[in-house]
Amino acid sequence: MKETVNKQQNSTEGMEDFLPINGTDYVELYVGNAKQAAHYYKTAFGFQSLAYSGLETGNKDYESYVVVQDKIRLILTSPLHGGTPVGAHIDKHGDGVKVIALWVDDAEKSYHETMKRGAKSFMEPTVKEDDQGKVKLSGIHTYGETVHIFVERKDYHGIFLPGFRKWETEYNPAPIGLKYVDHMVGNVGWGQMNKWVDFYANVMGFTQLLSFDDKDISTEYTALMSKVMSNGNGRIKFPINEPAEGKKKSQVEEYLDFYEGEGVQHIAVATDNIIETVSALKNRGVDFLRVPSVYYDTVLDRVGEIDEELEPLKNLGILIDRDDEGYLLQIFTKPVEPRPTMFFEIIQRKGAKSFGKGNFKALFEAIEREQELRGTL
Ligand SMILES: [Fe+2]
């Protein structure tokens, strides 16, 4: 059970970062009913109404709602008629993440630097303008049908992007303390992990932080492998999972079957107070995976002293793990759409920079119990 930590920075150390990224700009989900999805993310997750695009703004093909909580922006997009690429995406994959948008200072340079290193183009550099200024966008493909859009917004002062107007609502449930996207995990096919690790290393200049093999991430029945890629300043972290052989079906394989391809498995969002945040999420009807309560009998022997009382963590089902630099608290929702595909992680870091390896076994046994109920184990 060895966690391979690559503390040495990548081979580009001392060299200029050819793809500087300021942070996650937004995450766009293609969904069957954007209006109802926006209501769900407001009501259940505490997002706030931000921007809207649709018939009233001259968009005849799609309706999009943008919701925001601190630094996290989600776009929820549905088609307004048949025969659209968005509709085809939803038909094949169900609701899921299409765009992981990255905030950059130079969308044109981001495009050319990644293209010359082998990226596949999704959108050539494009300027969008309105009376609030201009935004430059460009985009490349990543795993499955997922894409990265580079967003350069230094010359823009509007609410979100040109083409959107402010979305004003009277129904505004309170935020619940979600702060920023901590990491986003991709599930890729059998034997594809290293291909996508190489893509993030070579095409986007990312470094490998950690790797887990199937001996780390396995239970009696199911297994997966994972490597974590991070950009230069550490603000973007993308773990990449692939299934591994076990006695029964890996959770990654179940995802690939139901998503009908590779895609985003979970969005991890950070909070400064996980007890308050998860209490609010539960009160608002969000379902979480639960580990058996015996987990809490021994967890403090494993992780040592923590600032929080154990009892509320146990009541809420929050998991704890420690690495060399500190500890972390985390919990995972059940999938948030009919197919057992994408879910959310809520994470509070108290020094730890890792991803909760100590919880993998208990967690995957909890997932297996869910798979068993679905008949997909
Ligand atoms: Fe995670």
Automatic annotation (TrEMBL):
EC number: 1.13.11.27
Superkingdom field: Bacteria
Family: Belongs to the 4HPPD family.
Domain VOC: from-to ranges: 23-153, 180-334
Coiled coil: none
GO molecular function: 4-hydroxyphenylpyruvate dioxygenase activity
Cofactors (names): Fe cation
InterPro entries from the UniProt entry: 4OHPhenylPyrv_dOase (IPR005956), 4OHPhenylPyrv_dOase_C (IPR041735), 4OHPhenylPyrv_dOase_N (IPR041736), Glyas_Bleomycin-R_OHBP_Dase (IPR029068), Glyas_Fos-R_dOase_dom (IPR004360), VOC_core (IPR037523)
Name of the featured protein: 4-hydroxyphenylpyruvate dioxygenase
PROSITE patterns registered for this protein in UniProt: VOC
Pfam families: Glyoxalase
Keywords: Dioxygenase, Iron, Metal-binding, Oxidoreductase, Repeat
Naturally occurring in which organism (per UniProt): Splendidivirga corallicola
Gene: hppD
